[in-house]
Amino acid sequence: MSSAMFFSLLLNIGLLVLIAALLTKIPIVRSMLLYDKHSAGCGIMLAIIFGLISIISTYTGVRTQGAIVNTRVIGVLAAGLLGGPYVGMGAALIGGIHRYLFDIGGFTAAACAVSTLVEGLAGSLFSSRFKAGKMGSSSVFILTVFVEFLQMMIILLISRPFSAAVQLVKLISLPMMTMNALGMLVFLGTFNMVFLEEDSQFAERMRLALGIVEQSLPHLRKGLYSIQDMQAAAEIIFQSTNCSAILITDTGKIISRKVNSELKDMNEDSVLLPILASIHDRKPTIFHYAKKGEPLYPILKNHIIVAAPIIEMNQVMGSLTMVIKKHCQQSQSDLNFASELARLFSTQFELSELEYQKKLRRKAELKALQSQVNPHFLYNSLNTISYVCRENPDRARELLLTLSSYYRQTLEHNSYMHTLKTELQHITSYLELEKARFEEKLHIDIITDENTNCQIPAFILQPLVENAIRYGFDKNANRYVSICACMEGAFTKISVSDKGPGIPETVIKHLYQGEHYGGVGLENVHKRLKSIYGQEHGLHILSSDSGSDISFTIPAAPESKGGFVYENCCD
Questions:
Q1: What is the CATH number of domain 225-349?
Q2: Rounded to the nearest 5°, which phi and psi values hold at 67?
Q3: In the chain, what percentage of residues exceed pLDDT 90?
Q4: HSE-up (13 A, CA, CB side) for residue 281
């Protein structure tokens, strides 16, 4: 009997896996499984689907000593793990009520109904851990064995006579625990293919988007308003995708277009007006339906239109619009693709603007100062922004604007000297980007006396701050950097300190002796200070294994408008 029971359970598991495979091919089911935050209607539908799976398991079970040996636990427990508490308990109620009504007055009817509810509760309780990836195959196997064990205990507690319940549990416990636990792994694995396929599609879309941007770089560097280059970019997108038409617009007209033969007679004005109206909310928009007689009806009859805004320096500058042939289950992926591609275009336009500003505004002194800026800073900043893009696009846009502001300040200050306030504003932009990179590991204090105002050499602080952030970390990788400016008689003392392992004595020795030691940041600042204020006004370094303090003094030159205070601006 035991071998027949194992075989029956194996057949039932095979049926459930087949059902799961078919369900994953249904677009609406895929959508509900892929997105956690579904509506109440979607939750009810998922509960009904998994409830029906548990009902099928009851019908296909094998009757043994007044009980039904089945795989009902798989549908109910999977409902909780995949769909969350509401779906899990909904499916459990459906499956449990059906099991009771299916065999009213039966030996195990009440016990199995109660155990079905317990199984749904267990899946609901572990749902958040499962979705967070904290439950591997072994954990799911153990959980299934555990809930089946609880079912056996419930049968012993509720079913009567007790002796018959004991005999039943002895007979069915091992087959149901082992086979249902293995079946659960296979069943969830089938549904997991949905997530793997979605990840694969996303990766392919991103690869395609990055490939398009890479091909378009020579044209994007000239900006949105180079019609010839935008036409070339539209051609690249058209050739790389299955779009029926590609349109690139500014805020008032179509700049470039590429259309296939099917849409060669498309009324561009009818498309342009809704596109321009949609991009003002700064979100991608999809047009998929129009009533007969409306301007967009000839296009939307067989196509969808996806419009994504191009945003430069926090301003909507235009749109990237794709016209795509209608197919099943495509809208969301096409919307995401257009949005990401437009965002990449926006980023490149902004970087191109920064490059253009560099070429226009950099003077001889600024060229000399480039050697003191960490060459990895821009690379690290863009990497940080790229990482934040997927998790928090709004924060990524803020960081991109901060990066833009930082380089704009670097390029726009043509004067050799500027105020301490201006220098600290520039440092604040730099620190905002570094804060995004190191997060809670970076702690910054910027403190000045209220009466501290003076003229200082442009960009004199950044190499010191950058050096402190780069090397001044403790054993726990925390970086504590303090910037202080205060009055000392007729001079202003400015210091940058950290709590790192200190600056090597050989570096300090070479710096004071005027010998090149490999780095350029401290050396450049030291030489500039001495050339402007005299030999006694170079850098003064105090270093130990608990941190370093780098300071310098310059003549004070108070401004008539009074002082200012920066404190804990980046913490």
A1: 3.30.450.40
A2: -120, 170
A3: 20
A4: 8
Looking up tokens 């202003």, which residue turns up? 492
Map 45-100 to HEC letters.
HHHHHHHHHHHHHHHCCEEECCEEECCHHHHHHHHHHHHCHHHHHHHHHHHHHHHH
Across the range 477-482, mean pLDDT stands at 89
For residue 425, pLDDT over 50 is answered with yes
Q: Is the model's pTM score more than 0.85?
A: no
CATH of domain 2-199: 1.10.1760.20
Per-residue model confidence (pLDDT) at position 27: 66
Q: Any idea which residue has 């991109």 for tokens?
A: 400
Examine residue 501 and say whether the peptide bond preceding it is cis (omega within 30 degrees of 0): no
| Domain spans of the chain, in order of start | 2-199, 225-349, 362-555
State the pLDDT at residue 414. Answer: 57
Domain 362-555: CATH class, spelled out: alpha beta
> Given this model, what pLDDT does residue 552 score?
92
- Total number of residues shown for the chain: 571
**479-488 and 442-448 beta bridge pairing:** parallel
Cβ atoms of 106 and 77 closer than 8 Å: no
**pLDDT class of 201 with cuts at 50, 70, 90:** low
Same fold, 225-349 and 362-555: no
**DSSP conformation class of 473:** B
Q: What is the DSSP string of 318-380?
A: EEEEEEEE--SS-HHHHHHHHHHHHHHHHHHHHHHHHHHHHHHH--HHHHHHGGGS-TTHHHH
Q: Which of 280-289, 414-423, 473-482 has the lowest mean pLDDT?
A: 414-423
Starting at the earlier edge strand, list the strands of the sheet with 303-312. 254-259, 245-249, 315-325, 303-312, 285-287
Query: Does residue 81 contact residue 88 with C-beta atoms inside 8 Å?
Result: yes
Q: Examine the pLDDT at 144 and tell me if it is beyond 90.
A: yes
- The Cα–Cα gap between 220 and 356 comes to 12
